[in-house]
Design a protein that fits this description.
mainly alpha, 286 residues, 15 helices, 0% strand
């Protein structure tokens, strides 16, 4: 199996776990404060990953060759998660997910600017198409005649923060092992989120503890698969595959929350996905 194909398979598996994570998070927003949900997700992420590595290898690979970059990457994930969870409290899962699909567009652009990956003229056109789709998903007044919900702009921040997270994942994959990277994923984020807990903490019931623990399991598993993907394939090829998440996010939003996406969400997501396909299509070699 080629490294790129293996990377794509890891990416698809990670996306499936992230949709389950988002669904559980949406349920939790109805009962617990956002900072507590984010904090507990990173706590259980670190515990689950630490136990798994300890059982598998007999040790915890804490030592990083780039601890500063690991911390910044973890904080990028904290920003991405915090903004997205706040958005889920106010808008449907499908709407929030559609706007976050701008992340692969940002990732492809950052891959060119930061990683030096080749992004030709056609891929820049794809990036422009994707950003146009984002504008449609945000429901601008000149299209809908209505003022868009302010929370729709939060997933846009999530998209950029997660794009930076993916770029840093790609950079770290050449200096640290996947085990070290996944172990550091929740450390800085959980440490910062812990500062807010004395102000917001609500004692969870048994079901709440279960859901929070599962967010750590699915989040940790998804990010481990993501690291495996980015250690095998270029970021500009992997990132557009995130659009397959639309199918599962739409089904989850409709089945579990009774929030089917409207035409603007679907149209915007379709335009964004078109841009992503243009970005992902292989360049023709001369």
């Amino acid at each position: 199996m080629s490294p790129i194909l293996a990377g794509l398979l890891f990416q698809f598996a990670a996306i499936a776990l992230f949709v389950v994570l988002d669904t559980l998070t949406k349920v939790l927003t109805a009962h617990y404060p956002v900072p507590q949900i984010v904090f507990m997700r990173f706590v259980f992420h670190t515990v689950v990953v630490g136990l798994a590595l300890r059982l598998a290898t007999g040790r915890l690979p804490w030592r990083s060759r780039a601890p500063g970059m690991e911390a910044v990457r973890s904080l990028c994930l904290l920003v991405a998660n915090g903004l997205f969870v706040v958005a889920l409290f106010h808008i449907p899962l499908a709407d929030a997910s559609a706007v976050t699909f701008a992340s692969p567009i940002f990732t492809a652009a950052l891959a060119a600017l930061v990683l030096g990956e080749t992004v030709g003229r056609r891929r820049w056109v794809g990036i422009a198409i994707g950003l146009l789709g984002v504008m449609v998903a945000l429901r601008p007044p000149f299209l809908t005649g209505e003022t868009p919900h302010w929370a729709l702009f939060l997933p846009l921040g999530t998209a950029f923060a997660f794009a930076a997270y993916q770029i840093l994942t790609r950079k770290l994959s050449v200096v640290d092992s996947p085990s070290t990277i996944i172990l550091h994923t929740g450390l800085a984020a959980g440490s910062v989120a812990a500062l807010a807990q004395p102000l917001v903490w609500q004692a969870p019931d048994g079901f709440g503890w279960l859901l929070m623990a599962l967010t750590g399991v699915f989040g940790g598993g998804g990010h481990y698969l993501l690291i495996q993907a980015y250690s095998r394939a270029p970021a500009s090829i992997l990132a557009p595959m995130t659009y397959t998440q639309l199918i599962w996010a739409t089904l989850s939003s409709a089945l579990f929350f009774g929030d089917p996406p409207d035409r603007w969400t679907l149209l915007g997501a379709a335009v964004i996905a078109t841009g992503g396909v243009v970005v992902a299509w292989p360049e023709r070699r001369r």
